[in-house]
Amino acid sequence: MTDPRPDDAEQAAIRDRLLDAALPHVAFDGWSPATVDAAIADSGLDPALARAAIPRGAVDLARAFHRRGDAAMAARLAGEDLSALRFRDRIAAAVRFRLEAVAGEKEAVRRGAALFALLPYAADGAALVWGTCDRIWTALGDSSDDINWYTKRATLAAVYGATVLYWLGDTSEGHAATWAFLDRRIGDVMKIETAKARLRDAPLVQRFMDGPGRALSAVKAPRRGPRTDLPGYLAPRR
Fold first, then answer.
1. CA distances from residue 99 to 38, 40, 123, 132 in whole angstroms, order as listed
2. pLDDT tens digits, one per residue of 106-142
3. Which among 51, 222, 202, 95 is positioned nearest to 146, based on CA atoms?
4. How far is CA 91 from CA 10, 122, 134, in A?
5. What are the residues whose beta carbons fall under 8 Å from the beta carbon of 127, sequence distance 6 or more?
6. Among residues 59, 229, 56, which one has the least CA distance to residue 127?
7. How many whole angstroms separate alpha carbon 150 and alpha carbon 147?
8. Cα(110)–Cα(231) distance, integer angstroms
9. For residues 173 and 80, what is the distance between their CA atoms, to the nearest angstrom?
10. What is the value of pTM for the model shown?
11. CB-based contact 6:14 (threshold 8 Å)
12. Tell me: the pLDDT tens digits for 10-67?
């Protein structure tokens, strides 16, 4: 008997079609069952196949929307030459590209932020932000394979999350206030990095690194693709 379930590629295509149909409704109904029902009706898809592609309903659509933004950002990063920029400016450019990828769907982002702030979906939201930051660091050539792999993404997740919230309320022309805010947040991280570099040279810290700190330095980054389930709030080493 032929398995009636669509394969992954088919499911991805179905989700894309559903997402396109859902977006006009999200501004009014949010990421909700009502939006799912409207998307299925508007898409013309078989309801059983549609729901099989999004078993968690609106949450799966919201996740697909976020990942579509990640893909657009990654494609833009791949086509840009950022080599002349300072590294901090490359990070800022990547975050800006990510927000500009969804600038035309700001209300969908707002509704998504509200959804993933709910306790049942908070882990989904954290994993999505972690995945975004992992794609940024990977695109920018990060080669760390120890605890720094985690701390770089954790710090960027904090910067990214704060910038998204600021962007959602920004009415300045061209979102100029958001880009200034982003630059300040990255500047704060760089100040922490400078302080860390000085601290690492202190004799007491050197003794720590010869003892308990050695265990932390032995932590390895994942070997089987990027992790998307580890939100955190430590600063990266460079």
1. 26, 27, 21, 11
2. 999 999 999 999 999 999 999 999 999 999 999 999 8
3. 222
4. 34, 25, 12
5. 228, 229, 231
6. 229
7. 6
8. 20
9. 24
10. 0.82
11. yes
12. 899 999 999 999 999 999 999 999 999 999 999 999 999 999 999 999 999 999 999 9
Which residue carries 């099989």 as its tokens? 52
- Tokens 């929307």 correspond to what residue? 65
Helices (DSSP H) in the chain: which residue ranges?
A: 8-29, 33-43, 47-53, 58-79, 87-100, 106-116, 122-139, 147-168, 176-200, 203-210, 212-217
- Tokens describing residue 109: 């982002």
Q: Output the six-digit token pair for 145.
A: 């394979």
Q: Which amino acid is at 54?
A: I
**Identity of the residue numbered 110:** R
Tokens (6 digits) for 237: 């080493």
